[in-house]
Amino acid sequence: WPRLATSSLLHGITAFLPSIGASAVLADYFDEQAYQFNGVLASATALFAFALQPAIGVLSDVHGRKPLIAVCLASSALPNVALLCGSVWGWAVLCAVSGASGASTSLILAAISECTEEAHRAGAMGITLALTFGIGNLIGISVGSLLYQRLGALSFAAPLASAALNLCWLALCTPETAKRRATAAGCAALSPWRAFSLLAPSES
């Protein structure tokens, strides 16, 4: 599990690296409307996450964790390509769609639960979350702000490099933990509403 936790840490760094620079770009582009735009973008990102993350989880049961984690890691870095090209609207669209990339943390936690003993599972998950959202936040924002101050838009290449490193680490150093199922997932299983059916009391 430490190798999976390392991948999650790198994902956290990748996610937080462009945050300060992107905020500065939005402030310059939208001026006083930047806050409203951020709110709309956050809502759109959450909507895509709600629609796509359950399907990603189901597909990972069928095809394995690693391929879907790789897709999420790659999609989380794509918005930075638009910022490198100076396209704020392109960044916004890619950022909203990449809301599904948040499933990578859930998939990594699922993989950790499958490769650790029950006695150590909670601790492994806690450490992974602390690395991702604590250390990843600290390193990503600190380094990202310094890079943007010195390099400007070129600093958005850093998350791309971090994501590429993470994909190499995932491919070469992390295990596949899920036993792939032979049957493909049906459309009903991919629906985000299916999760709510689990809350309904079962008939005895």
Automatic annotation (TrEMBL):
Keyword set, alphabetical order: Membrane, Transmembrane, Transmembrane helix, Transport
Topology within the bilayer: Multi-pass membrane protein
GO cellular component, one term: membrane
GO molecular function: transmembrane transporter activity
Cellular compartment(s): Membrane
Keyword Transport assigned: yes
Primary localization: membrane
Domain of life, source organism: Eukaryota
Classification via Pfam families: MFS_1
InterPro entries hit by this protein: MFS (IPR011701), MFS_trans_sf (IPR036259)
Segments traversing the membrane: 37-56, 90-112, 124-147, 153-172
Keyword ATP-binding among record annotations: no
Name of the protein this chain belongs to: Major facilitator superfamily (MFS) profile domain-containing protein
